[in-house]
Amino acid sequence: MATLQSNGSSSIDLSLHVENAYFGFRPDFLLLYCLRQDAKQEARTSVVDIRCALAKLDPHEVAELQKPVFMVPSPPSHHGAMGGERWSDPRPVFGDLRVDPNFICHFPGMKALEPMAQRALDRFEEVVLQRDIVRHIAVQPGGMLLLNNRKVAHGRSSFEARYDGSDRWLQRVYVTRKRSSYSGEDAAGVVFPML
């Protein structure tokens, strides 16, 4: 588990992603509340605002990223229930930037169905990793990050886990603005709209 691309890993960097990129229903916001930093204070949360990255792409790359030809792998934590790895339906990396980008990102693993789109995705990944684009934040106990999951990707640096109850511990909270984005008979619980 320590070497998987998952929130339970520690010995490798958790690559940039938006929360629940594989799924059709994703939270609008993600809150990360730090209960405990790792013992050596090594772990950093990486944050990238895609608007900064898009400014470094040419219009042809942006147009490729807006095509519905990108697929995201299912999270490893769901493989048992799903009978193995699955892939999302093809979708764009982001939508209309003037209205709502509805950004998705899951590095590594995300792939395009067309060669030009894959080149644009590879270029986009290069850009979001540039020093002037990505921020690294040491979240301390009692500290909280509020991330717009439609505009911001996040990740985490590696750290040494001790597995003795003193390891880094963040709590996640998902927030959505629209109750209608997840409703129906099969809804588990109630999603309250933000006011």
Automatic annotation (TrEMBL):
GO terms for molecular function: oxidoreductase activity. InterPro entries: AlphaKG_dependent_hydroxylases (IPR050411), TauD-like_sf (IPR042098), TauD/TfdA-like (IPR003819). GO terms for biological process: antibiotic biosynthetic process. It comes from the Eukaryota. Pfam families: TauD (PF02668). The keyword Oxidoreductase applies. Residues 13-174 form the TauD/TfdA-like domain. The keyword Transcription does not apply. Keywords: Antibiotic biosynthesis, Oxidoreductase. This is TauD/TfdA-like domain-containing protein. It comes from Coleophoma cylindrospora. The lineage of its organism: Eukaryota, Fungi, Dikarya, Ascomycota, Pezizomycotina.
